[in-house]
Amino acid sequence: MMRKQSEISKLPIELELETHIYEEISLRSENRRLESEVNEYKQQLQKITKENEVLTKQKEQIFFRV
Questions:
Q1: Which of 1, 2, 3, 24 meets the CB 3.0–4.6 Å disulfide criterion with 7?
Q2: Mapping DSSP to helix (H, G, I), strand (E, B) and coil, where does residue 29 land?
Q3: Longest CA pairwise span in the chain (Å)
Q4: Alpha-carbon distance 18 to 44, whole Å?
Q5: Three state DSSP letters for the chain
Q6: Kind and range of the H or E element at 4?
């Protein structure tokens, strides 16, 4: 089946659009993954900060006992 000239001239534009759509989908997916990773790091930081507070209090108690 032969394509009309107008259909042929549209192909690069359609391909470019499809490529942009694919890139957009990929970027959004990567963005979600990175946001999730950032949230995990925030949770880890909160946990470590709490542990540090506990250890700091324990250290102060030890030094004040002496």
A1: 3
A2: helix
A3: 93
A4: 39
A5: CCCCHHHHHHHHHHHHHHHHHHHHHHHHHHHHHHHHHHHHHHHHHHHHHHHHHHHHHHHHHHHHHC
A6: none
